[in-house]
Design a protein that fits this description.
Nucleotidyltransferase, domain 5; elongated
């Protein structure tokens, strides 16, 4: 006699359950596990054996038994995933809001900014939870960027002037972003560096001996990225005038020269003004005060610092200057211009939004 096994409880569906299960079973992008369970229940409602349902749905018979039993006990709610073991989620939306608002609008006692430990102590949440909340809202209380708003009464006019040269340079002209990187020090470390090894960065001593300073004068061609440079031990008006003469010698005749400079006093002395009067093809354009960000040559100086000066080790100013000249020569073999994308209107709108966020701005 055949072993018929334990009789199965009858599985019947209401019209609403059948419609819902059919919709779940057709899911293509959501939970495929839920779609499979729905197909199991639908097939079981046809009176098929567990083995037949398993063959139709591509699962094992014990899987059919499990979800058939779950449906009979809990109906549709029984087909969703059971809660997984572990500590249940306890962070509410109100707690998240409290962490975010507190981070943005207050500071802890006897501290300038919140840390994960201080916020965890205040809220009762774990430090890792605080870290996840801050990460989700891109909050970094430990970081602070610097800024200084320009007080130049001609700020708007100067922004339009300089940005106009970047975005719409004049014809038959060269636009040069000019500045000096002063007080570049020849530093000799007190001990040799330990080289980098797997799992260990390069190590350098924190103390050094100073062997003098030099100043790098640079004029960045905003069109092609090439640089005219000079090195002088001082950065007075007389050195700047020598640099202007070098620019005049290297820029082809017939081209107008537009120089973008900051408001350093040596750029405006009577000697410089007299030199400019004798060289009418030169035109000076001054950036607003406290606005070095608008002068493209500052980005060039950043590359010099990162690639050469930050880890430099020079026993004399002559050695330092030789390395700087070699670095600039290498740069000019394959120069790359910086791409300016912001219009003057966009810059002024951004600054306007910043001013609106500053408490008491304009008062």
């Amino acid at each position: 006699m055949a072993n018929v096994g334990r009789p199965k409880a009858s599985l019947e569906l209401t019209d609403d359950e059948r419609e819902t299960l059919a919709r779940w079973a057709r899911r293509a992008k959501s939970s495929q596990a839920l779609a499979t369970r729905s197909r199991i229940v639908l097939a079981s409602s046809e009176g098929l054996t567990n083995v037949a349902v398993a063959a139709r749905c591509g699962v094992e018979p014990h899987t059919v038994t499990r979800w058939r039993r779950r449906f009979l006990e809990y109906r549709l709610d029984g087909l969703v995933d059971e809660p997984r073991p572990g500590w249940p989620a306890t962070v509410t939306a109100e707690q998240v809001e409290d962490v975010v608002v507190t981070t943005l609008e207050s500071t802890p006692a006897n501290a300038t900014h919140w840390s994960r430990a201080k916020m965890a102590q205040r809220t009762g949440l774990s430090k890792s939870t605080i870290g996840r909340i801050w990460k989700s809202f891109e909050l970094k209380p430990h970081r602070a960027d610097g800024f200084k708003l320009s007080t130049d009464p001609q700020f708007v006019e100067k922004v339009y002037d300089v940005v106009g040269l970047y975005l719409n340079p004049p014809e038959s002209a060269v636009v040069l972003s000019v500045d000096e990187k002063s007080q570049v020090q020849a530093l000799a470390r007190s001990q040799p560096a330990f080289p980098m090894m797997p799992g260990m960065p390069e190590k350098r001593t924190h103390d050094y001996v100073r062997h003098g300073t030099t100043t790098l004068f640079a004029a960045l061609n905003t069109a092609d990225g090439s640089v005219i440079s000079s090195l002088h031990r001082k950065h007075r008006a007389i050195e700047f005038k020598k640099f202007l003469a070098k620019i005049d010698a290297q820029v082809p005749e017939g081209l107008t020269v537009h120089l973008i400079c900051d408001n350093y006093q040596t750029h405006k002395t009577p000697a410089i003004n007299a030199w400019l009067e004798k060289h009418p093809r030169f035109h000076m354009h001054f950036t607003p005060t406290y606005s070095s960000w608008i002068n493209q040559v500052e980005r060039f100086f950043g590359f010099v610092t990162d690639d050469l000066l930050r880890r430099s080790d020079h026993r004399s100013v002559q050695a330092l200057e030789a390395d700087i000249r070699a670095w600039v020569t290498a740069w000019n073999k394959n120069p790359t211009p910086f791409t300016w994308t912001k219009s003057a209107e966009q810059i002024l709108e951004s600054l306007g939004r910043l001013l609106n966020r500053i408490s008491g701005a304009g008062q």
